[in-house]
TrEMBL record:
Domain (BEACH-type PH) ranges: 170-268
InterPro entries: BEACH_dom, BEACH_dom_sf, BEACH_Domain, FAN-like_PH, PH-BEACH_dom, PH-like_dom_sf, WD40/YVTN_repeat-like_dom_sf, WD40_PAC1
UniProt KW keywords: Repeat, WD repeat
Any one Pfam family match given in the protein's UniProt record, by short name: Beach
Residue ranges annotated for the BEACH domain, each copy included: 272-559
Native source organism of the sequence: Ignelater luminosus
WD repeat segments: 597-638, 681-713, 730-771, 772-813, 853-887
Protein name per UniProt: Protein FAN
Length: 887
């Protein structure tokens, strides 16, 4: 069936298209002689607020007749010979009708006066369709809310009579559930029926506007399912499928949150569904490490915050980053070329901000600084008018904006955003999308937008002097977005839009307050009984713009400097190719067991690889100290250290002294050169559980089951521990201390406890710097990152986490199959050992699992890696020590 030029965008936003009829349009002055000449073949569309005739002749205009302007709607009573014998003709008289797309050219609509139309229905029955049209016409005379309520009742009645045809199923396909939902595209809401089967998701629209009578998505092709907020209500669901599917994505809005959640829950239960979800915390760390570009990260944050290209009320928002649009040359290395990302657009001009704040102080509650938002449907289409003129005509009742108010010049728009008391808009992704070459800046369709006051015809957007073309302009903006200058400050803008400065007291301090209807929770629509008031508020929500869903409650971490180069689309920060070739751990596919030592009689609790990578030293629950030569592949020393299990062992860097922690509360000094215990002292009131040495500060830290950490000073110089003289400080905890480590610069000491708490202590002052509660069980191991800005921990809850120390934000959180007992972070590698004997090797810069292997029959209790990364050593509950090399 030929659908012609008709589109839902020709209707009012939110208007519903029900059905259509094959028909002839017969002008009122038609006679028997002129009938064949004047009649127009086409389709008559019955919609909730209008009748639309779509002629087959593309040169003829589409005619829309608003039902509210109809004065006569009846069966034609004339007796003209050219009419069919049963007089199956609809007569329509109206005060106004609208002509659109005449000559098949996109142009402002023509609003015409009184007219009369006759529609001869070829197959439809006038006695069936006329009552339905008259019912809709009566609804059009009601107040907006009552009209919407009556149309909703009509829609519900029509939809209840439509059943899903089971013939769409394959042979073994079974239905799971059925519900109703609207398919959402920009400015368009199309109702339909959703059916979930064991193999596919179906959307059956209640009209024939879609390309197919039923849209089908294979569950096996679905890659992402995202719950969305639609009109500040949690009723949306966006579904993405792979490129081989005829429906790459679909955005659905449900009647209630329960309807949405019911479908979502049932989708996740289907065995055919194999999602490839990106975890938020992994994405943050990838971005911070430079393996995700600023552009891709902002797209991801927008998606996470319910911003979608399918919803103009929540279109993705991007920042202005360049502030110079007038110079002939733009220096991307000059900070003066950039906008201050720590401030919202409304606060960039101090003079304007003071005037806004003065108004704010005089305002009654609810107060706001900015009455206009940084992203609304009108602002989005302001930028995209050349690319999507039909959207603008839909939103603006068939008209383009005044030529002087259109998007004519980049420099003028930025200037207006800095000075106008009601213009605070940010940008959209298209300004940075180099794959589209800036096509939204070009009037490629040749649309007649009119002439400006100076006689200039509105054409392409005027670009800054420092660029040659739209393609070049977008590329320069993208390079600016990926620059170190922007990367250094982008986290501040993220705080304003998606994070901790988005609302509340922090937003007030940052001068980032908008009209209350822009915020989720600003008003409870369900509690408003007055339908007219509720409808008016819904319209306001759409027009004012919506604050993105808040996705960060703590300050966003800063990105590392010097990671991003000038990027082409979809590129990420390049790796050092030589490093990748030379470092076998980059592409490790398996581990070779190089040596195995099994002389311990109980669990190996701690081991270290010596500084020259030639020996492995271990202690265990059998009270034994063992030394193994890797060059000779054999044990070269065994010593009995007391009668109690040994928990930990470290080697002092400048001498052959081992420091050993014991369950008998003692710290033991062992001289490797002479093979004897030189000192043993009671260091705690309970078992010593862990030790760490601060090389730069010459301090020893010991943790204990007595809930304390003690820091010892300069004892190594005399080879003697004297608690009174050597004890520098004691750090108290709420439960037993399980692990500890110094930061690379020795400024901080991190400690983990049995109740899941992590403490960061200032080493100089012995004061608590920060405290985190990140795990639901005991912390088993902890380590600073090589540069000291992050902290990794793992625990009995099977989770390992990487946090940014300055903000406390989780940059990476991953749940594995069993309890994690030990870890080692060296350069880009993170090694993890688990209770079930699995060794995990992660690239913690790219944040991906490189390899995992069953390394021990029991739990892995300790991991260490050679300083040159040539091998690693593991010790376990199976009493064995193993040496592994990458292959």
């Amino acid at each position: 069936m030929d659908k012609g030029r008709f589109s839902l965008l020709l209707l009012e936003p939110g208007e519903i298209y029900f059905e259509d009829f094959s028909a002839y349009l017969i002008p009122a002055d038609t006679t028997t002689k002129t009938y064949e000449i004047k009649k127009q073949t086409g389709r008559l569309k019955m919609c909730s607020k209008s009748l639309v005739f779509d002629p087959r002749d593309l040169n003829k205009p589409i005619i829309k007749i608003p039902l509210r302007d109809c004065t006569i709607l009846e069966q034609f009573k004339g007796t003209a010979k050219f009419l069919n014998s049963n007089n199956n003709v609809l007569s329509v008289s109206c005060k106004q009708h609208i002509e659109m797309l005449e000559g098949n050219v996109i142009a402002p609509y023509k609003f015409c006066g009184d007219a009369r139309f006759l529609f001869l229905l070829n197959y439809g029955n006038i006695k069936d369709c006329l009552p339905r049209i008259c019912q809709l016409q009566r609804a059009s005379t009601l107040p907006a809310a009552d009209q919407a309520d009556m149309i909703a009742a009509i829609v519900h009645s029509r939809q209840a009579r439509v059943a899903f045809d089971p013939l769409w199923f394959d042979l073994y396909e079974q239905p799971v559930m059925e519900t109703q939902a609207d398919k959402i595209t920009p400015l368009v809401v199309n109702p339909g029926r959703i059916l979930l089967s064991t193999a596919r998701l179906f959307f059956q629209p209640y009209n024939n506007i879609e390309t197919e009578p039923v849209l089908k998505i294979k569950l096996s092709s679905i890659t992402r399912i995202v719950k969305r907020r639609f009109l500040l209500r949690h009723t949306g669901l966006e579904i993405y499928s792979d490129e081989n599917n005829s429906v790459p994505y679909i955005y659905l809005a449900f009647r209630t949150k329960n309807d949405r959640d019911n479908l979502y829950g049932n989708l996740l239960k289907q065995s055919e569904l194999k999602l490839s979800e990106i975890q938020k915390d992994l994405m943050i760390l990838q971005w911070q490490n430079g393996y995700v570009s600023n552009y891709d990260y902002l797209l991801y944050l927008n998606s996470l915050a319910d911003r979608s290209i399918n919803d103009l009320t929540q279109y993705p928002v991007f920042p202005w980053v360049i502030s110079d649009y007038t110079s002939k040359v733009l220096d991307l290395n000059d900070p003066k070329s950039y906008r201050d990302l720590s401030k919202p657009v409304g606060a960039l001009n101090e003079i304007r901000l003071q005037r806004l704040l003065e108004r704010y102080e005089e305002m009654s509650s609810p107060k706001f600084i900015y009455g206009s938002h940084y992203s609304t449907p009108a602002f989005v289409l302001f930028y995209l008018v050349r690319l999507y003129p039909h959207y603008v005509l839909c939103l603006q009742n068939g008209r383009f904006d005044h030529p002087d108010r259109m998007f004519n010049s980049i420099a003028d728009v930025y200037k207006n955003c800095l000075s106008n008391m009601s213009d605070f808009k940010e940008l959209i992704p298209e300004f940075y999308n180099t794959e589209q070459d800036g096509e939204f800046l070009v009037n490629s369709m040749g649309i007649n937008f009119g002439f400006r006051h100076n006689g200039t015809k509105v054409g392409d957007v005027e670009l800054p002097p420092w660029t040659e073309s739209p393609k070049d302009f977008v590329k320069i903006l993208r390079n600016a977005l990926e620059s170190d200058i922007v990367s250094e400050k982008l986290h501040m803008w993220i705080d304003l839009i998606f994070g901790c400065k988005q609302l509340g007291e922090e937003a007030k301090k940052a001068n980032n307050l908008f009209y209350y209807l822009s915020y989720e929770g600003g008003i409870d629509l369900e509690a408003i009984g007055d339908l007219n008031k509720r409808h008016a508020i819904e319209v306001q929500i759409m027009e004012f713009g919506q604050i993105p869903k808040q996705i960060f409650q703590v300050p966003h971490p800063q990105r590392k400097k010097g990671l991003q180069l000038m990027l082409e689309p979809s590129q990420i920060a390049p790796k050092n190719i030589n490093e990748e070739v030379l470092d076998p751990w980059r592409n490790v596919t398996s581990l070779k067991l190089d040596m195995l030592f099994s002389t311990h009689k109980d669990t190996v609790s701690s081991l270290i690889i010596t500084n020259n990578n030639t020996k492995v030293i271990s202690v265990g629950y059998d009270s034994k100290l063992k030394v193994f030569s890797l060059t000779q592949s054999r044990q070269i020393r065994s010593a009995n250290i007391g009668d109690m299990p040994l928990s930990s062992c470290i080697q002092l860097p400048t001498m052959n002294i081992l420091v050993i922690g014991s369950f008998d509360n003692n710290i033991v000094l062992y001289d490797l050169e002479f093979g004897k215990v030189t000192q043993s002292v009671i260091a705690h009131e309970d078992a010593v559980t862990c030790l760490a040495w601060g090389k730069k500060c010459n301090l020893l830290a010991s943790g204990s089951s007595d809930c304390t950490v003690r820091i010892w000073k300069s004892f190594a110089n005399s080879d003697v521990i004297k608690p009174v003289q050597c004890l520098k400080s004691q750090l108290d905890h709420n439960s037993h201390v399980t692990c500890l480590c110094f930061s690379p610069d020795n400024d901080y000491l991190a400690t983990g406890t049995g109740d899941g708490e992590i403490y960061i202590w200032d080493v100089t002052s012995s004061s608590l710097h920060k405290k985190f509660n990140l795990h639901k069980g005991a912390i088993k191991a902890i380590s600073f990152s090589p540069e000291g800005q992050k902290l990794v921990s793992c625990g009995s809850d099977k989770i390992f986490q990487v946090i940014d120390i300055s903000t406390g934000m989780a940059l990476c959180s991953k749940t594995l199959s069993s309890v994690l007992l030990c870890l080692k972070w060296q350069e880009f590698l993170l090694l993890l050992g688990s209770e079930d004997g699995i060794l995990y090797i992660w690239d913690i810069v790219e944040v991906k699992l490189l390899h995992q292997t069953k390394a021990h029959e029991g739990a892995i209790r300790i991991i260490d890696m050679a300083s040159d990364k040539s091998f690693l050593a593991t010790g376990g509950e199976d009493h064995q020590i193993k040496i592994w090399r990458p292959t």
